[in-house]
Design a protein that fits this description.
This protein is an alpha/beta fold and about 475 residues long. It is built from 14 helices and 24 strands. The chain is globular and about 65 Å long.
Length: about 475
């Protein structure tokens, strides 16, 4: 058993851990990063990246099937080779995870594969294939991510019951799928398999799909889901499942009683749980905040020298939030007096059309009792959206009625995920609607929608009728 001392040990090589380790290396801190499964974590291997690869492929599949809209003729029906699609997706993942290893090495970070436990203040024991290794450090960063939540009656160990990881790895398109949970993961996977020809039913316990999002956004999504042949059940609970002669029956319950939904697979996407078990937190006396590790604005725990970032450190459990915290922590460990003071963490749902939110939505601003003005521009009024044949959706800008400060922006539409960054920057910089409105946006682009919506909030829009 060997003991080596480091300036910092990072546990977990996901979108929080590996940027933290890279930045530590750049700052000259002797750093060890420990990963028990896959470099890049859930995000790169079985989350953000592979899901977006499949979402892109499904969208292209749909576009080809409707190529006649643009005057193209595709001889014969379009067919899908799911094995080749999975191989391509795997190549995307391999390229990015390989890049993570290369960057860690290039920045002088030592990499170790194994399962880490904090066995004492400043000490970590790592179970590796070659045996236990004990390492010490001045600072330890917990970046262990999260895992899908299981619900009673639906064990992921059972073949037809899958989580998002299983949904990303299917080697054939099922004929029927029941998706439990109408949140962002559930609807993203629903969109993929519906476009590829699967009959999908979404079961959601709340009273709308995408609970917590602006109902105006949900209406746009529902129209597209209906076109894709998706059905959904609201205020409905999943009770269990049983095998049948040609698949499974999923039993659900709503106000009218219980019913059975035939399926080949049932995908459970009801949320994620932080990975805080088996880290030694109890023995160290680490303070918790519900299921999360309690941290301050520098991501410090109550134990000196111990930090936590990403999903284990609280909501929102998003990759870009984890990356930001990882870089903050690296600076803190290096000795710089910095802290996380982000005003907004953008949220993106990669459905079709996409949904993106920065800051307050209109319903949330009203719920806070704020006096607001709202600008709303449909993509049907934006030249580039029309040329793209992607006119579903809108941009909504919420501003303070008196100061005109931008409080929030909601986008539902084609490439919403790319448009929202301007909105996040505007909020961070305390921009007024006029700051966006007077900024010359190139034409024709989708980004003009932000400018027009900001002007609409002021009653000065050109391409839509002002209130």
């Amino acid at each position: 058993m060997s003991t080596t001392h480091y300036g910092a040990i990072v546990i977990g090589a996901g979108p929080g851990g590996y940027p933290c380790a890279i930045r530590l290396g750049q700052l000259g801190v002797k750093t060890l990063i420990v990963e028990k499964a896959s470099w890049g974590g859930v995000c790169l291997n079985v989350g953000c990246i592979p899901s977006k690869a499949l979402i892109t492929a499904a969208k292209k599949f749909e576009d080809i099937r409707h190529a006649d809209t643009f005057g193209f003729t595709v001889p014969g029906p379009v067919t899908l080779d799911m094995a080749r699609l999975q191989n391509w997706k795997g190549g995307v993942v391999d390229k990015l995870t390989g890049g993570v290893r290369t960057l860690l090495k290039a920045n002088g970070v030592t990499m170790l594969v194994g399962e880490a436990t904090v066995t004492a203040a400043g000490q970590v024991t790592v179970k590796t294939a070659e045996g236990d290794q004990v390492v010490t450090a001045d600072a330890i960063v917990l970046a262990t991510g999260s895992r899908p939540i299981q619900i009673p009656g639906f064990d992921f160990a059972d073949g037809p019951v899958i989580d998002s990881t299983g949904a990303l790895a299917l080697t054939e398109v099922p004929k029927r799928m029941v998706v439990i949970g109408g949140g962002y993961i559930g609807l993203e996977m629903t969109g993929v398999y519906a476009k590829l020809g699967c009959n999908v039913t979404v079961v959601e316990a709340m009273d709308q799909l995408l609970p917590g999002f602006d109902p105006d956004v949900v209406k746009v999504l529902e129209r597209r889901l209906k076109k894709d042949g998706v059905t959904w059940m609201l205020k409905t609970k999943a009770l269990g499942w049983e095998r049948t002669a040609d698949g499974i029956d999923v039993e659900v319950s709503d106000a009218t009683g219980t019913k059975k939904l035939p399926a080949d697979y049932v995908l459970v996407t009801v949320g994620r749980r932080p990975n805080t078990q088996n880290l030694g937190l109890e023995a160290l006396g680490v303070t918790m905040a519900g299921p999360f590790i309690a941290v301050d604005k520098q991501c410090r725990t109550n134990v000196p020298g111990l930090f936590a970032i990403g999903d284990v450190a609280g909501n929102p459990m998003l990759a870009h939030k984890a990356t930001h915290e990882g870089e903050i922590v690296a600076e803190v460990i290096h000795g710089r007096n910095v802290h996380s003071d982000a005003k907004v963490v953008p949220e993106v749902v990669f459905t079709d059309p996409e949904v993106a939110v920065a800051g307050l939505t209109e319903p949330k601003a009203k719920a806070k009792g704020l006096k607001i003005r709202v600008g709303k521009v449909p993509f049907a009024a934006i030249g580039r959206a029309i040329a793209n044949h992607e006119t579903d959706g809108f941009v909504k800008v919420v501003i303070d009625a008196e100061t005109h400060l931008v409080l929030g922006v909601t986008v539902v539409g084609y490439h919403a995920s790319d448009i929202i960054s301007e909105a996040a920057l505007a909020i961070e910089m305390a921009a007024e609607a006029l700051d966006i409105g007077l900024t010359i946006h190139p034409h024709p682009t989708l980004g003009e929608s932000i400018m027009e919506a900001a002007k609409h909030a002021l009653g000065e829009a050109i391409h839509v009728v002002n209130k």
